[in-house]
Amino acid sequence: MGDMTMINLIWLILMAGGILYAGINGRIEVVTQSAINAAKSAVELAINLIGVMCLWLGIMKIAELSGIIKVISYTLSPIIGLLFPRVPRNHPAMGAIIMTISANMLGLGNAVTPLGIKAMQELQTINPKKDTATPAMCTLLALCTTGFTLVPATIIALRSAAGSVNPTEIVGSTLLVSLLSTILVLIMDRICQMIFRR
After folding, report:
1. Are 89 and 81 in contact (CB under 8 A)?
2. Is 85 helix (H, G, I), strand (E, B) or coil?
3. How many CA atoms lie within 13 A of 142 on its CB side?
4. Radius of gyration, alpha carbons of the chain
5. Are 84 and 136 in contact (CB under 8 A)?
6. 20 with 13: CB under 8 angstroms?
7. Of 18, 126, 142, 152, which has the highest C-beta tally within 10 A?
């Protein structure tokens, strides 16, 4: 059974369970009202989010055109080289990895996915065993999962769209938690690589 099928099955069980529970308690109208209210709230949130996301994406585009993204990428190059020692420095995979991690650091979750896929495709070109993930692929996946973030743009946008009084107050705690989780996952990644190498 595929992952999407399993997720769909879980959602079906949750919805069916809620409807059944409301029916048993004679409160089926609550389900209908909640569905209508949730649909309305989702549309309002999406419309509010569009404006905030456009603002952040515009800022990121300015950063890209002004060369700030290149400076970040250049700064990250030595660190990325240490994290991915088996990837040649001049290989396109290295550039794709740097762009993926840069987007992650800037909190652009929507941009990370296509960049991450591109990085994985480039890493696959230097993979001797095409049906097995390389250590570099595992490291990249681990880094993307923890998502070390300097500016959590998407979360700030969501909080702003939801009417938060101070949507940026989570920056410090997000930075600390994402830094600690990234350090921990890198340590575990190296331990696992040593175990499997033996």
Report:
1. yes
2. coil
3. 22
4. 21
5. yes
6. no
7. 152
**Which residue do the tokens 């396109």 mark?**
92
Compute φ and ψ for 8, nearest 5 degrees: -60, -40
- Region of residue 132 (left: phi > 0; alpha: psi -120 to 50; beta: else): beta
Handedness of CA 156, 162, 165, 170 (dihedral sign): negative
Q: How many CA atoms lie within 13 A of 68 on its CB side?
A: 10
Torsion of CA 36, 41, 43, 45, to 10 degrees: -170
For 89-145, the pLDDT digits (tens) are 778 888 788 888 877 877 666 667 777 888 888 889 888 888 888 888 988 888 888
Please tell me the distance from the alpha carbon of residue 69 to that of residue 75, in angstroms, as a whole number. 10
Q: Residue type for 57, please?
A: L
